């Protein structure tokens, strides 16, 4: 029997500065999404349905928020006691800085050991700031059938959705026969209505991944594995796999806000969640949401454990939120544990965990300039950001 086992290396190391203050203490992958999920859930769920049992996660900083969410990996059936499991490697930013001072150390040691011990023939290398429900079984089968060295997945997206000045994001360039001939920086994107954007997911053999790592070591090139694969991509034969479902690239506050708000559209929500692969997440038991008799809720996603006594329109409400009487929440993302006082107004805003909005406070942004209130902050009527 031919070994077609797949392992995975996920990089949680993307630059998150354009998502501050939401990412001060968490990687992009740990950001809440659609009132119930975390962004990393989409990658882990896809791996579950592809029967992947060995996953390595490389995290830029401490990774506490990821550890708290993922734990043993049980929610994604990645808690094998026999072989495999989730292996986490934190402080990658520190490691990169340390390596410049100690260049004799093997920067890719943990990557190589993971790959060698996985006993897999193929490896998925991916970032974790893309929201997509990818069928990895189809992707892997397509790669094997192609006979090519490396396969990458892309989606045709509207040109105005492609962010500029993000050096690691790439647009695919095809020839007349739809063969991939180059990857160009998104700042040089062609002026088309739809643009083929890389989803930063690659499948290649473990042997080839080890070969690329060895090549990088010999040339003193040290970068995250998804960047490394992309760097050497054009040295090998390539195959492309088109993804046609919902996808969002979470690179900054506007893209994070927009992706959440798109979940209020039934078509977008169904495209992402109502597939043959339900998205898995950490299970949390909670009491049902309480709706006061004078509350008013329209077009909202509301998680469990929440109390709504006021008005909620076109918004996403996470767990254990309290919205008092006569308070109004519109076009907003309210994260876990937020308390909104009586008569307060929140509109075009993102409130991070445990924010307290005092009675009568006003937090009003604009569609093109969403207000973000950092975790654990208290907003009173005199300091309301408008």
Structure description:
The chain has two domains: 6-274, Spore Coat Polysaccharide Biosynthesis Protein SpsA, Chain A (Alpha-Beta Complex), CATH 3.90.550.10; 290-379, UDP N-Acetylglucosamine Acyltransferase, domain 1, CATH 2.160.10.10. The chain is an alpha/beta fold and 386 residues long. A hairpin with a 3-residue loop joins strand 2 (32-33) and strand 3. The protein starts with 5 loop residues before the first strand and ends in a 7-residue tail after the last strand. The chain contains nine helices and 25 strands. The longest helix has 13 residues, at 206-218. The chain has helices spanning 40-49, 64-70, 92-101, 109-118, 136-146, 206-218, 225-232, 253-262, 266-273, and strands spanning 6-12, 32-33, 37-38, 54-59, 85-89, 122-127, 130-132, 150-158, 170-174, 180-185, 194-205, 238-242, 247-249, 290-291, 296-302, 307-308, 311-317, 322-323, 328-334, 339-340, 345-351, 356-357, 362-364, 371-373, 378-379. It has a seven-stranded mixed sheet, with helices on both faces.
List the main descriptive attributes of the protein structure presented here.
386 residues, alpha/beta, Spore Coat Polysaccharide Biosynthesis Protein SpsA, Chain A, UDP N-Acetylglucosamine Acyltransferase, domain 1, 2 domains, 7-stranded mixed sheet, 6-stranded parallel sheet, 25 strands, 23% helix, 30% strand, nucleotidyltransferase, ADP-Glc_PPase
């Amino acid at each position: 029997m031919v070994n077609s086992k797949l392992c995975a290396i996920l990089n949680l190391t993307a630059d998150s500065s354009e998502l501050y203050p939401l990412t001060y203490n968490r990687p992009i992958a740990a950001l809440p999404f659609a009132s119930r999920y975390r962004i990393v859930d989409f990658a882990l769920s896809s791996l579950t349905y592809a029967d992947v049992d060995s996953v390595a996660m490389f995290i830029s900083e401490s990774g506490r928020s990821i550890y708290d969410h993922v734990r043993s990996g049980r929610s994604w059936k990645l808690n094998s006691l026999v072989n495999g499991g989730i292996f986490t490697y934190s402080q990658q930013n520190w490691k990169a800085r340390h390596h410049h001072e100690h260049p004799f150390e093997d920067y890719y040691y943990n990557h190589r050991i993971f790959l060698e011990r996985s006993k897999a023939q193929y490896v998925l290398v991916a970032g974790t700031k893309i929201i997509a429900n990818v069928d990895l079984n189809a992707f892997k089968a397509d790669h094997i059938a192609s006979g090519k060295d490396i396969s990458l997945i892309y989606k045709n997206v509207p040109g105005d959705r492609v962010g500029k000045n993000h050096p690691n994001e790439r647009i695919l360039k095809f020839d007349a026969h739809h063969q991939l001939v180059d990857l160009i920086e998104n700042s040089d994107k062609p002026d088309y209505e739809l643009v083929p954007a890389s989803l930063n997911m690659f499948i290649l053999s473990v042997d080839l991944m080890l070969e690329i790592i060895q090549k990088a070591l010999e040339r003193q090139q040290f970068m995250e594995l998804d960047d490394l694969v992309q760097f050497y991509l054009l040295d090998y034969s390539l195959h492309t796999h088109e993804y046609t479902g919902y996808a969002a690239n979470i690179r900054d506050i506007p893209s994070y806000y927009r992706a959440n708000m798109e979940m209020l559209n039934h078509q977008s929500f169904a495209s992402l969640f109502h597939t043959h692969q339900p998205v898995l997440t950490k299970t949390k038991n909670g009491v049902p949401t309480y709706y006061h008799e004078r509350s008013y809720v329209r077009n909202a996603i509301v998680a469990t454990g929440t109390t709504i006594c006021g008005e909620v329109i076109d918004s996403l409400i996470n767990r254990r939120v309290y919205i008092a009487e006569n308070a109004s929440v519109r076009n907003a993302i309210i994260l876990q544990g937020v308390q909104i006082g009586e008569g307060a107004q929140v509109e075009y805003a993102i409130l991070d965990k445990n924010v307290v909005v005092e009675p009568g406070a006003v937090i009003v942004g604009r569609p093109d300039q969403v207000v973000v209130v950092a975790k654990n902050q208290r907003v009173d009527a005199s300091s309301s950001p408008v």
